[in-house]
Structures are given as structure tokens and as C-alpha cells.
Design a protein that fits this description.
The structure is a homodimer of 299-residue chains. The first copy, chain A, has helices at 2-5, 44-54, 63-69, 71-80, 99-119, 138-159, 182-189, 203-206, 212-219, 253-262, 276-280, 283-298, and strands at 32-35, 58-62, 84-92, 124-127, 163-165, 197-202, 223-228, 230-231, 243-244, 269-271. The model of chain A has no long low-confidence stretch (mean pLDDT 94). Helix content of chain A is 42%, strand content 15%. Chain A is built from 12 helices and 10 strands. The first copy, chain A, has one domain (2-298): Alpha-Beta Barrel (TIM Barrel). By secondary structure, chain A is α/β, with parallel strands linked by helices. In chain A, strands 1-2-3-4-5-6-7-10 form an 8-stranded parallel barrel, surrounded by 6 helices. In chain A, strands 8-9 form a two-stranded antiparallel ribbon. The first copy, chain A, is globular and about 55 Å long. In chain A, helix 2 (44-54) links the parallel strand 1 and strand 2 (58-62).
Chain lengths: 299, 299
């Protein structure tokens, strides 16, 4: 994969590092957040230490890693490190058609909301789920997402947690998220106040959409999170791992970032990369590279 | 792949054939067309013979196979067999940014139009092309498609050939078609009369779209071709080959077929499957299976 997609990190023999890694405290880094799945082999402690070392002021946490480290311990750790939690990944998977499955999903999402509240996360990212096994009822699955949210949103509001609906690339419609476009996510979110239910703009998922710029503008104050990573061509055999380092794929980030800014979003820009090569690389090198690429490709 | 996706053809030990293959002349087959890529290992002569044997009244031809058999010979062969040519695949790849590439594309598309005219094809399917190598200028590529069509449409009109713009699944936006939704295709086609420029509705490419039913209705008389195949989950390692036999994937065909009918489309329903297992199977078995699946899943 490396040969086709470029190196996962900038190394002397690979892509030249056209900028030095900005030092901690550099004003260009004030909106940067490390989604911890980018440094997937690290636990919470290493990821927090990595952010502190490079001056990345925020982190996007994942429930699995938080559970491993302990919820209260994680909350303490990030607070002591002076980090903000840009998001908690993730709630969702709301499409179960059977009452037991729906009830389990509701229960799990309530726990996720509680965790997001404890961590002071900027939002809980919601990946709404795909078609239940054997089902072809896409409209039904979409209706169930809305119905479960009706139950979940009041709980989240009471907990002070903002839900962030994430449209996923249509290639994941069947198995991960029946929410497939930003416009559809805004339509759904619009049933509730913007401060209760927002949307996630993730460049990988929306870059292809002919309506993306107008829908970003329409989303406005509903933009709860902005995630960046590149779209690799060709996609690797596992399409979940086609998320590349910014600059290694086909996405032109600046127009999207400018549109999100123009829509009024002032939150963090979270780098979330699912990529076997990136995961195999040294975490510190990955952070150094993503900081440089953030400066050269996104800012 | 077979184990996860079901058999490529109906065999005694596999999925039960719940209906017998309707015999030639069965009124249920009057709108069926075999896209010859479904029986990819066959040349034009074998595919035409296969259609005749099973009473499939139309065929979607591919330029490569037509060239191998000879253009005039193919036109004679299909006419003598009493087959209609539902479509010719394919023109397009209009996004080259350099003048030489753009000029080659224009020339090649004029040849494709001439071939479609000779074959009496119902339309020339246009796969518009992705980003040029190294480019991230998606808006520019989309603009160039429109610009080249401005030159090409008059030529097609004079030749009596209808161009059919095919939106491809967004996963192919970078490398095959910057036309990603049916709505976008209708917007583009609307610059010309419906009889000059239509659109292709291909279930694989549009099933996920939250707007698909309203856009099919809006397309109305612009629907120039309706292609069916299923969307397999998980996708195989080569995502181009994720097109399965109807019934083996996640698409609910009837609502889409009913919407296309309600929009006024009375043309052929072309079965176009790109799938390694289908290609490895005996062509006659493939046709028998697709006829049964057409009856049980689509009609």
C-alpha cells in the first residue's frame, strides 16, 4: 500500500517535510485535535502524553480505550494534561429491528452519554448503524434511527451532552450507517435544537458530495465536529482503512475547511485516520507528520 | 466470496430456485436485457446466442466485444437474431485536463457515438471519468465534463444517438465518475433536451441515496436506461466487483423498479453484473439464474 499511497509518515527518504513541525504553543495548533484512533496502538495514557509533547491541545477519545484506562482516571488524566476532549467516539448503532436489540442499543447509548458527560466531551459522535442482518428495508432502518433518537435526545440534554450525527460515506450504508449525506444528517438533526443535536463533517465521508458546500453552509451552528483525513485511491482491500494522512489522497481540504469556518464553526479540527500503515508507524512520528500536514494541507 | 455472498448461480445444493426459468416468449421477459458484461467471458456471438436460447429480447453491448466481433457483423448478428440493443457501453472519461487528453476523449466519444448509431443502440452509456492523475480539483473535473458534453451532444443528435449520463456510486468518484448522484446527473442532463441527453438509473449506484425516489420521479422522461444488480456486503477486495446477482445483496429492487415505471420509463431492464463468481460460472447457467432472479426480485 505504501508504494501507491505514499508513506504514512514523513521520513527522510519519503515525501520531503516542507515545513518543520510547529513547536508546542504555536498559534497554528490551537484548533488541532488528535483522534486517538489515529494512534490506535496507543492507550489513553500514551495518546495524552503524545498530545502534551507536541502541543496538540485536544483529543478525540474512543470508548474502548477509555474503558481500558478507566473512565474516572481518563477524565482526570486529560484534565491534568490541560487537554480538551473534542469528541467521544462513539454512540449509535440504532437500527436493530427487534425489541431486545433496540433496548440494548438504547442502554448502551445512555452509557455512552454518561461517559461523554464525565469526560466533558464536546460531543458524542453517533454512527447510526446499517441494515440489520438479512434486512433490505433501508427506509425502515432510517425511520428507526429517528425513533430511537427521540428517546435518546432528552437523556443527552439532561446530561449536558451534545449528540453529533455523522453521515458516513455511502459505501458504508449497508453495514455501518444508513445516514449517507450531510443533507440527510441536517434534516434529521433539525428535529431538535442545534445545541442538542449537531452533525459531524468528516472530509472522507463527504468530499464527493456535489452538495457538500451548500449543506455545510446550511448546517451552520449544527456543526459539532470537523474531522479530517484523506481519501486514498485505490481504496485498500478493507475499505474501512482507506482513510489516509492528509496529502496522501484526493481531497482538497482547504475549500471544505473554509466552508466549515464560514458556517461559523470555531471548534477543533480532529485528525482521524484509519490506516494500517499509519497504525504500524511510531506514534510520535505520526503526530509529527499529521501536524505538518495539517499546516500544509488544511490550514 | 461464495460463502458470504451466496452462490453466483442457482444450483441444486445452493439457493432453491423458487420459480422455474420462464420459457422463451414468456410475457414476463419482454423488458429484460442482458448486459453482455454479465457473461463477460463470452464474445458477442455467444451472448447473442444465449439471449436467443433463453428468449431474452435485448442485449446491452460493450465496445470492446463489438470491436472484436466487428461492428458491421455485430449489427447484422443482433438484427438477424431479432434482438434489440438496449445500450452500448460505454462512452465518457471526459475529465482530462490537458488539451491532448481532452481531444483524444472527444475523438473516442465520436467513434462511440458512430458505433451506437450503427448498432441502433437505445443509448450510449456515459461514464464521465474521475479526477485526472494527481489532481484534487473535483469542481474543475465536473466543469470539464459539462464543457466536453457541449461539444459532443450536437454530434450525437446528428447521429441520432441518445447519450445517457450514468451517476456512479460515490466510492468511484475519484477514479471513474465525478457524477455521483442521480440528482446531479439530472441537473447536468437538463442543459439539453431529454431526447438528446438522458440518465442511467443503476440500482448498485443509487440504492443508498436518500433522495433516489424523488430524483427518479424528477428524471421522468430522461431515464434512458435502467440497470439492475445487487450490492454485496461485504464488498470484495476489488470494489468494482461488488455487483451481485439480484437477491444476493442488500438492495430492495421493487420500490426502485416501481419508481422508474411510475416515472414513465417503459424501456428495458438491463442486468449488468460485475462479479468474479458470476464470470467463472457457465454463461447459460448465469442467464437461467438471472431470469429467475429477475422474476422473483425485480418484477
Amino acid at each position: 500500500m505504501s508504494a501507491r499511497h505514499g508513506p504514512a509518515v514523513d521520513v527522510p527518504s519519503g515525501r520531503p517535510a516542507t515545513v518543520r513541525t510547529p513547536p508546542p504553543g504555536d498559534p497554528r495548533l490551537t484548533r488541532l485535535s488528535l483522534n486517538q484512533w489515529t494512534t490506535r496502538r496507543w492507550g489513553v495514557a500514551e495518546a495524552v502524553a503524545g498530545c502534551a509533547r507536541f502541543g496538540v491541545p485536544a483529543i478525540g477519545l474512543w470508548r474502548e480505550q477509555v474503558a481500558e484506562h478507566g473512565l474516572a482516571a481518563t477524565a482526570r488524566l486529560v484534565r491534568d494534561a490541560g487537554l480538551q476532549v473534542s469528541s467521544l467516539c462513539r454512540g449509535g448503532f440504532l437500527t436493530a429491528a427487534d425489541p431486545a436489540g433496540a433496548s440494548r442499543a438504547l442502554e448502551d447509548n445512555r452509557r455512552a452519554i454518561d461517559e461523554a458527560a464525565t469526560l466533558g466531551a464536546g460531543c458524542l459522535v453517533m454512527v447510526v448503524g446499517g441494515l440489520p442482518a438479512g434486512s433490505r428495508d433501508l427506509a425502515g432502518a432510517r425511520d428507526r434511527v429517528a425513533a430511537v433518537l427521540e428517546e435518546l435526545v432528552p437523556y443527552a440534554v439532561r446530561a449536558g451532552v451534545r449528540l453529533a450525527l455523522e453521515p458516513l460515506h455511502p459505501m458504508y450504508c449497508a453495514d455501518r450507517a444508513v445516514l449517507s449525506t450531510l443533507g440527510q444528517a441536517v434534516d434529521l438533526a433539525a428535529r431538535w435544537p442545534a445545541e442538542a443535536v449537531g452533525v459531524v463533517v468528516d472530509t472522507f465521508h463527504v468530499w464527493w458530495d456535489p452538495e457538500v458546500l451548500s449543506q455545510v453552509a446550511r448546517a451552520g451552528p449544527r456543526i459539532a465536529a470537523f474531522q479530517v483525513c484523506d481519501y486514498l485511491v485505490p481504496l485498500p482491500a478493507d475499505p474501512l482503512l482507506g482513510r489516509g494522512m492528509m496529502g496522501d489522497g484526493v481531497i482538497d481540504f482547504r475549500p471544505l475547511r473554509a466552508a466549515v469556518d464560514a458556517a461559523g464553526y470555531t471548534g477543533f479540527v480532529e485528525v482521524e485516520i484509519f490506516n494500517a500503515d499509519v497504525w504500524d508507524a511510531d506514534g510520535h512520528e505520526v503526530i509529527a507528520t499529521l501536524i505538518r500536514r495539517y499546516v500544509t494541507e488544511v490550514l
